[in-house]
Amino acid sequence: xxxxxxxxxxxxxxxxxxxxxxxxxxxxxxxxxxxxxxxxxxxxxxxxxxxxxxxxxxxxxxxxxxxxxxxxxxxxxxxxxxxxxxxxxxxxxxxxxxxxxxxxxxxxxxxxxxxxxxxxxxxxxxxxxxxxxxxxxxxxxxxxxxxxxxxxxxxxxxxxxxxxxxxxxxxxxxxxxxx
Length: 179
Fold this sequence. Notes:
By secondary structure, the protein is α/β, with parallel strands linked by helices. The chain has one domain: 4-Layer Sandwich (Purple Acid Phosphatase, chain A, domain 2), CATH 3.60.21.10. Helices cover 15% and strands 32% of the residues. The chain has three helices and twelve strands, in the order βαβαβαβββββββββ. It has helices spanning 16-25, 52-61, 76-81; strands at residues 3-6, 30-33, 66-69, 86-87, 90-94, 99-103, 119-122, 128-133, 136-141, 154-159, 162-167, 172-177.
């Protein structure tokens, strides 16, 4: 199974067409959005590309293969106006070889995770990384719209044995073989 992960769209449509093209080009099976779909947040200034309706249209066009997690900026209104389910807090994707725990990251993350021998994939921090800490893997695709710490917008591709984070220009940020 090949899964594309993005996070923290925050209502900005700018990179979504590229994401859709890469999703199709890479023959992904699922698109997982790790929260913060529509709202830009009170700390971010309004930027070019902010278009909630365009983001909603993009997500609806992917809804047959879409898994969405509710982020800390997503409201009950966002959930009610979306034509696809938005899952609260934590969910599980079972692949042939791995159980992938998915969340937004504001509650569960590498600082707060009770399981051992697991993979936790989350957004929220807008910084891409793959870390192995003791028996766990922690992964973050970064933000597709509002990256931090000098990173470009980014996304993560999970394949059974390998995880790769790419920036929007298709450069590899980080890659990890899962053992």
